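Notes from the 1:1 (GR / supervisor)

We went over the backlog. Supervisor wanted to see one worked example end to end before approving the batch request, so GR pasted a single chain during the call. The sequence is below; no edits were made to it. Supervisor asked that the structure be written out right there so they could see what the output format looks like.
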Amino acid sequence: MTQQKRIGVLVMSYGTPESIEGIEAYYTHIRRGHPPTAEQLHDLTSRYEAIVGGVFPLRENTDKQVKALEAMLNEQHPGTTFVCYQGLKHASPYIEDGVESMAREGIEQAVGVVLAPHYSVMSVGGYIKRAKDKADELGVRMSFVRSYHLHPQLVKALSERVAEGLGKFEGVDKDRVRVIFTAHSLPEKILEMNDPYPEQLLDTSKAIAAEVGISNWQFGWQSAGQTGVPWLGPDILDVLQTISSEKQAEHVLICPIGFVSDHLEILYDLDIEAQKTAKALGLQLARTRSLNTDPLYIETLSDVVFAELEKSEHA
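Structure output shown during the call:
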């Protein structure tokens, strides 16, 4: 009886602390080993406290996505055994830890995928580099999914959410609701590098708008870092200000296409900060549901991982 082929899947994401107590170490890692000031630490801690209220469910989202992906891969491709490992950018288990676990468990071939559909050399590119360096060092053959921003099941999942979100505005014609697609801002210098990130995000936005049949939409950025260099804009809070001051709309639906989980950037930056701004401006604001473990999203991941595996085997 021949033994089934075992393929490792390194599922990478930004990471979030495991508890309120872990925030300082997490923030220090983001700041490349420089501890945050007391003011910075207080600011970030208060944001987490505002959304989690003493419990810390954020890690569970990613854990469930990884388990669901492993289950779907094995269900859809019974001739191969897939084993998923987590690799986080700024928290344990780090990207390198995930690759080390693979090597220790005898995995010789693997595929890496990031829980972010859009490629930038500064985001997904950084994950891939860290994983590849460690895989090369340990002799694990690893290829990578770079992006999947126009996968039909992803577009379908997001379109369903926009259609559902438009229904929250009772008695309001959908054309009177301004839909704003958002993603995490990055430093403006990516524009000089011909980075595909902004274009991929616009392509996803256009695909969803076409699927849902809306024309009253725009793109906005969110969650920019405080680094002293210019970041991509306009920021979502400025976009809301403009919509209000120019009387463009009274109803706004935000669809954060750059995020796949309920994390700080959704639960605080949108649900608390943007909502507070909207209320002050007299705007009615709603947000689409996050993808989390939606079967359409897990199917997207399963599909792109298997396609990458086949491509690498025939390369």
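Supervisor's comment: The first strand starts at residue 5 and ends at 13.
Batch request approved.
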